[in-house]
Design a protein that fits this description.
The chain is an alpha/beta fold. Helix content is about 40%, strand content about 20%. The longest helix is centred in the N-terminal third of the chain and has 16 residues.
């Protein structure tokens, strides 16, 4: 969106849906991203579930020899069904602790398609960035144009004077997983 800082990323928080969504490109890109992370020895940090895009990306990382840390709150152990085949599963007391721990052990964050929870995580990590609680880069994988309307709305918020330039400059939009690699391997 604006100025961008390149970093060498060792661990990436990925926020995405606990459902697959209706467009097959969502699953295709989640699987490709998992393979890319594993091949480049980037640890996946995610919500710990085995369902939907969450489970798919974790499975892909593991199938390609990568490492995965999942953090799931007690409340969601059955709803999202914790993943039992990952490197490390941490059970948190609640959603707030889950997000805080994910943010604290990752070097950057990537947002894939998802629902309300995914948007909550996106906006919270951007807000924490704005408040200087962290300075992590934030990437949005706009699979199949899923986030086109949201991106336009963010531009509207900026044009109308509601966003701080330093926070918005840390968001980078990509259209395919392969576009991430040059950005995180500086």
């Amino acid at each position: 969106m604006s100025q961008f800082i390149y970093m060498n990323i060792q661990s990436l928080a990925v926020f995405c849906g606990s459902k697959m969504g209706g467009n097959p490109v969502f699953a295709q890109q989640a699987a490709a991203l998992g393979k890319l992370l594993a091949e480049n020895e980037i640890r996946l940090i995610y919500g710990g579930g085995s369902a939907g895009l969450m489970g798919l990306i974790a499975d892909s990382v593991m199938q390609h020899g990568g490492k995965v840390t999942g953090i799931i709150p007690k409340l969601l152990l059955e709803w999202e069904v914790q993943h039992r085949g990952i490197t490390e599963l941490i059970i948190s007391d609640d959603m707030h602790e889950r997000k805080r721990r994910i943010y604290s052990i990752s070097d950057a964050a990537l947002i894939l398609p998802g629902g309300f929870g995914t948007l909550d995580e996106l906006f919270e990590i951007v807000t924490w960035n704005q408040l200087t609680i962290h300075d992590k880069q934030i990437y949005i994988l706009n699979s199949g144009g899923f986030y086109d309307h949201l991106i336009r709305h963010i531009d509207t918020m900026k044009q109308e004077g509601f966003l701080y330039e330093d926070a918005i400059s840390r968001i980078r939009i990509i259209d395919e997983p392969a576009a991430l690699l040059p950005l995180i391997r500086a």
